[in-house]
Amino acid sequence: MRYLPKSAAEREQMLAEIGAASIDSLFEVIPAEYRLDRDLDVPRQQAESEIIDYFRAAGDRNATGYASFLGAGAYRHYRPVIIDSLVQRGEFLTSYTPYQAEITQGTLQAIFEFQTMIAELTGMDVANASMYDGSTGAAEAVRMAMRVTGRDKAVVAATVHPEYREVMDTYAQHQALPAAVIGYDAETGRVDLAALEAEVTQETAAVLAQSPNFFGVIEDIPAIAAIAHAKGALLIVSIAEAVSLGVVRPPVEADIVSMEAQSFGVALSYGGPFCGVIACKEQYLRQMPGRLVGQTVDSTGYRGFVLTLATREQHIRREKATSNICTNQALVALMATIFLTVYGKEGIRELAEHNLAKAEYAAKTLSAQAGAKLLFTGAPRFHEFVLHTEESPAAWNSRLMEEKIVGGIDLSRWYPELKNATLWCATEIITRENIDDAARVLAAAPVEA
Questions:
Q1: 60 found inside a domain
Q2: Under the phi-then-psi rule, with left for phi > 0, alpha for psi from -120 to 50, and beta for the rest, what region is 404?
Q3: pLDDT per residue over 181-210, tens digit each?
Q4: Is residue 272 situated within a structural domain?
Q5: Which of 20, 45, 81, 167 lies at a C-alpha separation of 20 to 30 Å from 13?
Q6: pTM recorded for the entire structure
């Protein structure tokens, strides 16, 4: 009975209360062809010790000890052990949402600290409690700009993460969200400013750019802002790699910043959960989606925290809701808060500098191999770079895998013009030996078919 919530007697009582003679009669309304008339084909029950042994054996079969050069919006950084030690405390792990502010001061304070740190990092006036992830944050930021400006068109750089743009396309299926996509300069990898200027009009609500962009290149944010603001449009800057703000100048010219905070101590757990955030200038505060925690004092003068804004349909009339986002990533945002607290301002800068140096060494070492060429060298970059090879990515990646190395991601999936071009990432997790080994494999002669 350990895992069964009701006894046989209790089930009989429940059936009697609803007037059903048996479990079978209860489900007679379901056509027979949709009912299972046999036992489930599952293994026999196992003792707890057997289950643990099973999963340990399965874990041993996993691919471990691989060096990975993958990035593209999901980044491997060292996670201080204190993060899991703190977030697994019952006070944090079991808390739900801060509806009753007077009994959730700890949760509210953690959110307030998160908002403060994000605002400082991004150069914005205010940040919200968090979004689902960077992709939904970008789409919500565009909708926010449309509410602010009263316009209904967006211009998006092709250098914005392709999957972020796919999420925007999903939003557009049932909402007015038309977006024109602007290409990039072949030499720099930055958005084509001339094409951008030609596309932005008096009907444009927002210009969405990403920096560092999907190629790892730092965009010219002041120039993009000048183009957007000249036509009365808002500038939204998406940041997929939050650690970059340790050395990259924050996009202070932006009106709205949408950021993915996964790099701040959130593990890559098979694709989630992530932690998005929206920050903005103060005058746009009331059009921000999600919730916002504020600080105040109580009647006796003690500091306290309150749910200042929660512009969603559960709290206000549906037609006045700014978004259908119904929560925030409180526990994941707490991980980011602890990470930022542990590293501090100097630590985040040192971490970013480490990433910058590691990627620079990787780019030079890998591009020095025969048949390899570094693309988009006309602009600064952070810890990602694009490498073009004469061999197909599938060919050399197969050799890398034999050496327990995962190479860069094939860009032709999203950019057909970039055949045999791959996006590589080198964070502090990658060692010099990993880079040298990858270069050695790339330089090796192709295996004969």
A1: no
A2: left
A3: 999 999 999 999 999 999 999 999 999 999
A4: yes
A5: 45
A6: 0.85
